[in-house]
Design a protein that fits this description.
heterodimer, A: alpha/beta, 4-stranded antiparallel sheet, B: about 850 residues, 6-stranded mixed beta barrel, transmembrane helix (chain B), Macrolide_Exporter_MacB (chain B), FtsX-like permease family protein (chain B), transmembrane transporter activity (chain B)
Chain lengths: ~220, ~850
Amino acid sequence: MIKISDLEKVYRTEEVETVALNKLSFEVKDGEFVAVMGPSGCGKSTLLNILGLLDDPDAGSFLFNQIEVAHFNERKRADLRKHNIGFVFQSFNLIDELTVFENVELPLIYTGVKTAERKKRVEEVLDKVQIMHRRNHYPQQLSGGQQQRVAVARAVVNHPKLILADEPTGNLDSNNGNEVMQLLTELNEQGTTIVMVTHSEHDARYSHRIIRMLDGQTVTENILI
Amino acid sequence: MLWILLMARLLAVIRDNKKHRKTPNIFSMLSNYIKTTVRNLRRNKVNTLINITGLTVSIACCIVVYVFIKNEKTFDNFHSKASRTYRIVFDDKTGNNIEHGGYVSFPVAKALRIDFPQLENVTQVYVRNYGVIQIPSANDTRKLFDEQEITYADEYFFKTFDFQLLAGNKDNILKSPDEVVLTKRLADKFFGKEYADAYNRVIGKTIIINKKPYRISGVLKDMPRNSNIACNMLLPFKDFERNNAATMQNWIDTYSEHYVFVTLPENYTPQQFDKALIGFKNKHLPGEYAKRITWHPQLLTKVHTDEMYGGTYYATPSVLIIAFITMGIIVLLTACINFINLATVQSLKRAKEVGIRKTLGSRKYQLRLQFMIETFVLVLMASAFAVLLANWFLQQFNQYLLFIVDLGLHIDFSIILFLAILGLIITFFAGYYPAKVLSGYEPAKALKGGIQAKYTSFKSRFSLRKVLVVTQFVVTQLLIIGTIVVASQIKYFYSKDLGYDKTGVLNVEMPGNDEQKLELFRQTIVRNANVRDVSFSSGPPTSAGNGFGNIRLPEAPAADNITMERKFTDNNYLKTYKIQLLAGRDLWENDKVTLSDSAARYNILINNKAVTALGFASPEKAIGKNIIINDRDVATIVGVTKDFNNAALQNEVAPCVLFYGTNWVSTAGIRMNRINDAATNDFIQKAWEAVYPDNIYKSMPLDEYMHKKAFYVLEDIMYKGFKIFVVLSIIIGCMGLYGLIGFLAVQRQKEISIRKVLGASAKKIVYMFSIEFLWLIGIAFLVAAPLGYLAMTSWLQGFAYRINLSPVYFIAAFLISLLIATFTVSFQSIKAAVANPVKSLRNE
């Protein structure tokens, strides 16, 4: 599914140059659940942004389903993203002006799904994350765990092949955190590939494989299953 | 343009997507955008209020300006033959000087009818403009009405103009000299409600106009105000002919307000007619005049706005139109600037949403479209309010500006189209930049809150924000400068020494020249101890249109003629108005003369300006000399007066001749010891009404008459307009500033808190906020002052007597804008400065 080789990314300001990724290479197979760990500033988030086509690498290759996407223009990236990738963030990132239902519906609008079909799919997925009863609430009216379940629902409503999760339990207590991890595991069992950035060894144990990073490079890989 | 490109792009994408079976459902997308928009507007109430108010007011102003201009541009275009109807105008070339006019002598219309049988119609009107009307009633208590806008029209009038008759027969009207056609308004006024909507019953009734009976032969629907020939009453031209047989044969003398209109047949071009008019004038005009004068057809619909040949009574000066358009644009600009400022400063709040939408697959154009739609929704709401507000504005406009037009708001296709275009323009100007900024955010950064306050900071040396705020201050300062200067000039008008004493004189309108009646009136009122002097004349010292003519020395050729103003006065004129005599003597009783068509000899006074113009070395040297008036009369100069402003202050003092003429008395000047003495005024009115029982008494203190009547109408309207726009634009600007500072304060809350923790006082923080704006106001002043100086200098060029542009005006404008801005800024900055620092630091 994903193959990156010699990926480089450097952030420059007028005075400082920060190397975020330094000739990083690894592969993620279809159906895998991979956790990426490492201290703050090791390049995890940069990696996730590049994998999610939200950012360009400066050098190196990024094959997504055997297609080189490293230098796609914005339009192509947006197209690829909306059909193939779902995101779950630490801070949920729901749109405050939209209800639960409307937030989850949004990716389907961007991919052009018809109204009736949208309704069906949104309700299905809301049911799955057990938040159906709150469908007409606004994000501010929900608890953190509920918000993250909505975010997961939004990430999967389009049946993406890949889910990128950026510390999905970072803002949650352990009960809610476990619930979300359970959800991700179920999705993975149904065939979705997952790449998750986390600080939590506990969460990482849900994955098949842990990639540990330091200073923009992979240091070790632990196979868990 | 870009809006269109954006729409085209959108359509292309829809097509494109259809091909690939991946249609982003446009309606779902729109409904999603509109949902977000409405909720966003609801959530940011202050912001929304500021934007909607600003946009509403400015769109309303634009509607008013539009209605005003549409009214200007549609004069007389509602007649079915308007495109083939022309007014006859003249060019009069003497030497290098060409005079233009829209009127011709009286025999022209009849001769055109005979010489050009191919013309579809020829009609003439003569605007008479004033009359006293009596309605004989059963119990013989006769009612008197004082009516304006009375016009003589011939029997061909209705063949050219499509004014609708409510009663009477179009084909059989205005044919006899003793009939009259009233408008509905007058019919209602004269006969009351019982005849309303039954105007056939009014036909045949007799009314008395200026003491002559006329039979009502028609009732007109009130004429639309966007017509050059709109009037309240039509008198038959035959009536005029009957009393002016000589004038009807006179090809040379012209009368302004006498217009001839021809309707050309379909196959006859105005160029052909123009050529044919050369033969026509050569045939009829005497030799010398045939050489000087050419006649041309001027399209009816062009009459109103034409400045060369002069519009008719209702013409609006183009300077006023330009001023109003400019002010409309300025107010609109202020509101757009507010919008851009508030939207960009608020954009940080929206960054997260942009990040999420992009992550979920939204493309840049979709986001741009979303934010443009947000702007559009706001503009749409504002437009709806604006229509209501504009309606109210127009009502005020009609009243407050004492306008000669009657404007109303009619929702028709053209105004909807205007609003649609205006809405798109505003959406584009106000919405494009914020949309561009927002849609450009990188999603990864936006989600992490890493968007730098690049667009919102005041720190960078040149930010768009600074430019916009400076622009707003420039506009405000310009308007303030304009208002101060116009107000000062008007004040100067009213306070300038005019060379005579305008206080203490009562100005009474006189209905005629009858010497016995005048004498009777004089003798009655001088018995009152409060009355000091009485003078009958063609008008007070400063008055327009007292008749112009030419003067020259007897030995000089006709080419040396000097244009002068001729005042018909009496032997009390100088005393009554306190005009100083420089040499010679005042007019005496035996200087009295009644002018006739044959040459005459009489004694005159001239003003000092005429002394110089005629080339006399001094006033004394002019005494006893003869001059020739209008190439005919021989007049002996018996006295020279000091110059007084005989024309309005836009113009220089003109050479002036005063003589004791009995032909033209329209005014009595009554000098009193106490002008506002009710008993005396009552006494004068009673005396007047005893002498003129069939007329309506009208009087006004002279200084008030100068204010109200005549001379500074345009300046007054401009001043009033300035005041309105200044207030509006300051309010809108302040609201924008208020919102802007509010956001900046929130944004800089952390900085403020750290400063406070480190020991900064609230005063220091308020100062820190204010100083940035003071700089901007200073920069704005550097732009506004020279611009204002240039604009106001050029405006003042239009006045022969004008104020000097003192630096005080500019400093005052600067201080006023400073005061307003400081006041606005301090509201928000004090709030930020006194807030608890711990609170905001913890939030971080």
